[in-house]
Amino acid sequence: MQSLAMIENWPVPHAAAVVVRADGGVAGAYGATARRFPLASVTKPLAAYGVLVAYEEGAVELDEPAGPEGATVRHLLAHTSGLAFDEHRVAAAPGTRRIYSNAGFEVLGEHVALATGIPFADYLREAVFEPLGMTESALPAGGSPARDAVSTADDLARFAAEVQAPRLLDPRTVLEAMSVVHPGLSGVLPGYGSQKNNDWGLGFEIRDGKSPHWTGAASSPRTFGHFGQSGTFLWVDPEAGAACVALADRDFGPWAIEAWPPFTDAVLAEVRGAGR
What we know:
Elements: E1 15-21, E2 26-31, E3 37-38, H1 43-56, H2 73-77, H3 102-116, H4 120-129, E4 150-151, H5 153-164, H6 171-177, E5 187-189, E6 193-195, E7 205-206, E8 224-228, E9 232-237, E10 242-248, H7 254-274
Helix pairs in contact: 1-3, 1-4
C-alpha cells in the first residue's frame, strides 16, 4: 500500500505498520513488523479481550461487583467505575463520569486473577496470545494490564483479524465490546482534552463524533480501538472493512497529533479505492 510510505516522514527512530482486511488478509505492511515495541495503553484492548474470554468461560460476569462500591466489571472495562486516572482512589460515583483509569484495569486484572486462580499475565497469554499465535506478545509477570504489554505489528495484526472475525469470542460479545457503554458521559480523552460525549465500549475507545481525535477525518463514527503513549495505535473501522496497527518508538506528542490523522485518511482512501 502506497499510503504506508507516509511513515517514512514520521520523526521516529523505528516504526512498523500493518493494514488488515475484514477477512483477515494483510492489505499492506511497512517496516520491521517483527520488532517488539512497548504498547503502553494499547495493552488495554488486549487485556479487555482476556477479561471477555473469562466472561464467556463463566469465570466472571460483566455485571458482578468489582472495584469501588457499586461498580462492576462492565464499569471497569468502560472507564465508568469512578476510579481516578492512576490512583486507586474513588473520584466519582460509578456510571456518572467517564474517567479514563489505568487503576481500573489493574483492578480488573486482580479480579480475573482471583476468579480464575491464574495470574492475569498468564491468563492473558493462555486465553489470547497463544490461541492467536501471538508468540512475540507478553504482559510481564506483575505488569499492569493497563500499559505494560509488548508486542509486534505482526502479532497485533493477528489480533486485529480476530476482532474483525472473532473465533475466540462469540461475535455478539465483540459487538457489545464495540458498542457504547453508558452513552452521553463526558470526560477527558488523554492527549485530546475534554470530550462532551467521551464514548467507550468494553475496553475499546469508540470514535463517534469526537474532535479532535487521533484517527482520521474519514474514519467512520463506528471506528474503535486505542492508542498508547509510547507512540502506538490500533484502530478498526467496520464500515471500511479494515484495521490498522502502527507502532513506533517515540512517545506520543505533537508529532503524532500531526501525523496520525492524515495517515489514517490515506490508508482509508486506499482501502476503499481497492474495494471498488
